[in-house]
Amino acid sequence: MLRKAKVYYQDLLAGWLSETEEGFSFVYDSNYLSQVNVQPISLTMPLRPAPYTSTVLFPFFDGLIPEGWLLDVALRNTDVSTLDRMSLLLLCCKDCIGAVGVEEIKEDE
Asked: Which pTM was predicted?
């Protein structure tokens, strides 16, 4: 099951993160790129129209996932594996600390 997510920067839609057959892809939204004074979601992902691709979840997104006891609390009532990083990101990072939020796109959207 390949999943997609909207990525927000300070409540503005910044782009989309997708799970692909090859790994992962992130692309900035063209409307976001056209605005004045917008910031990249990460210094490792400067603003550009071309997609970023990776065989593993981008370290920036992986770093948003909580660790330790906070992760244990998040997983308490789920059957998500700690190895499924995309599921953890979608489960824990809709309203995480900081400027970036990740919201899953459901199949019917």
From this structure: 0.88
Are the beta carbons of 28 and 14 closer than 8 angstroms?
Answer: yes
Structure tokens at 78: 């789920």
Which residue range(s) make up the domain with 41? 4-105
The torsion defined by the Cα of 59, 44, 95 and 90, in degrees rounded to 10, comes to -40
Tokens of 48: 């550009």
Residue found under tokens 């981008």: 58
Q: What is the mean pLDDT of residues 16-28?
A: 95
Contact 59, 26 (CB under 8 A): no
The single residue listed with the structure tokens 């979840």 is 57
d(CA 41, CA 54): 16
Listed in order, strand segments (DSSP E) in the chain are: 4-9, 12-19, 24-28, 52-54, 100-105
Rounded to the nearest integer, the mean pLDDT of the chain is 89
The count of structural domains within the chain is 1
